[in-house]
Write a structure and sequence with these properties.
The chain is built from seven helices and three strands; from the N terminus they run ααβααββααα. By secondary structure, the protein is mainly alpha-helical. A hairpin with a 2-residue loop joins strand 2 and strand 3.
């Protein structure tokens, strides 16, 4: 069985989601280096961009002597994919086990607002579809859409 390499977060990838150039389209490696808050070498950013391109996270095209890069999917979509991978790899797909592990870590402290937000999300997902006002599908206790059975 051949393992697929996953796209891991990198400063260059994070930059694509946060920087105004990418909201308009694309940017060169030099523009990314100049705009990044951390001082990374140009070669480091180019290496990250090459890795991200190999993994399908960014694309590029040549414009004269410059290579212009563009994120393939938004950070939120990439985050969902990465989270699903972590859940499958380390927790057998169980969000419950992942949350329990996180909450059992003494370093993770939730404030009242964060706990209330989690309770609200759980309540939303536990309501039957006909009672729900947000249009989300009815979920079973594992968070899987009942329509997908």
């Amino acid at each position: 069985m051949r393992l697929r390499k996953k796209v891991l977060p990198s400063p260059a990838f994070d930059w694509f989601d946060k920087h105004p150039h990418t909201r308009l389209g694309e940017a060169s490696a030099s523009e990314i280096v100049e705009a990044m808050p951390d001082e990374l070498a140009n070669a480091t950013v180019r290496t990250q961009l090459r890795f991200l391109e190999e993994k399908g996270a960014v694309t590029f095209h040549r414009e004269g002597k410059r290579f212009l890069y563009r994120a393939v999917k938004p950070k939120k979509a990439a985050a969902k994919s990465a989270l699903r991978s972590v859940l499958d790899t380390f927790f057998g797909g169980s969000i419950e086990d992942a949350v329990a592990t996180h909450l059992s870590d003494p370093k993770s402290k939730l404030n009242v607002e964060q706990m209330d937000r989690l309770k609200d999300l759980i309540d939303k997902h536990s309501k039957p579809k006909e009672e729900r006002q947000d249009g989300w599908p009815k979920m079973d206790r594992c968070g899987i859409s009942v329509a997908s059975y």
